[in-house]
Amino acid sequence: xxxxxxxxxxxxxxxxxxxxxxxxxxxxxxVSNAPxxxxxxxxxxxxxxxxxxxxxxxxxxxxxxxxxxxxxxxxLLAINLSTGIPEKALPVGANPCGxxxxxxGRFLYVANSGSGDLSVIDxxxxxxxxxxxxxxxxxxxxxxxxxxxxxxxxxGSDNVTVLNGQNQSPIATVPVGKGPVGIACTSxxxxxxxxxxxxxxxxxxxxxxxxxINTSSxxxxxxxxxxxxxx
Length: 231
Description:
Blueprint: E1 2-7, E2 14-18, E3 24-28, E4 35-40, E5 51-57, E6 63-69, E7 74-80, E8 86-92, E9 96-101, E10 107-112, E11 117-122, E12 127-133, E13 138-143, E14 149-154, E15 159-164, E16 170-175, E17 180-185, E18 191-196, E19 201-206, E20 212-215
Antiparallel strand pairs: 1-2, 2-3, 3-4, 5-6, 6-7, 7-8, 9-10, 10-11, 11-12, 13-14, 14-15, 15-16, 17-18, 18-19, 19-20
């Protein structure tokens, strides 16, 4: 099962995290769409067989970060991209689901669905700076292109937490449709689109104020989960 699919910040790979008996990350050539490498992931430091839910590559293309977890625990792996060997592991909240790297490459934001919080990681030193309480069952993270705001979808509380991207403090909780999961910002940061699985619609937020500016009509027989915005 592919749990996450995204383009690396430097555009060199499409990254696919795969949940299976042998969990892995597959790196895909974005031109040919052919798999280039498959990196098999180890067990977590606790000895548990965690499953990968998201992966990102740093801007330099030297290190990959993989969020892994179980319903009761979570871990962030730092993998040397040239060798495919894990270098470090860092505990995060329970059952991490979504993760994003800030545009400047400094911060990693990990949404921990099992513990209802957001781990803020210094990607340069690979240390957890803190955890921020968000809503119930947080799922995905989006960051405005200038890094000024961070948005977290909370599937269990039907809202989006908005944080200040400079100091990681919550600044708003915005009600949206039911069961929000996928989230994406426009390239200019003016709008944020939220896929609501329970109400089968899309909530559109103002990227500056965070407020809801529009809601799509429900999509019949549809459960919108992921979402992307064309640049």
